[in-house]
Specification:
By secondary structure, the protein is an alpha+beta fold. Helices cover about 30% and strands about 30% of the residues.
Length: about 80
């Protein structure tokens, strides 16, 4: 069964793994490039998870991470679905 887990700052290693895998697997689907993130330090990953108004989710299949999603505030009242 697939479950969704909301990620907190301490989940940055899981977020890093999921995001780097997604960037490598489907580079055309993201504004960012793998090269922009592959050398990211712990503080950079934590900052992404701590961004005000951001919401990050990991999809788990039988306890194994298989996907991710991210939403961030945009301009004004607009919200952006990103990093799916």
């Amino acid at each position: 069964m697939v479950t969704l887990r909301v990620l907190a700052t301490d989940d940055w290693p899981l977020w890093r793994t999921l995001r780097l895998t997604a960037l490598a697997d489907a580079p055309h689907a993201f504004k960012s490039r793998l090269a922009d993130w592959c050398r990211g330090e712990e503080q950079r990953w934590q900052a992404r998870l701590e961004a005000p108004g951001a919401h990050h989710v990991a999809a788990l299949l039988d306890g194994c991470a298989v996907g991710m999603g991210s939403g961030r505030p945009g301009d004004g009242a607009i919200r952006e679905l990103r990093s799916v």
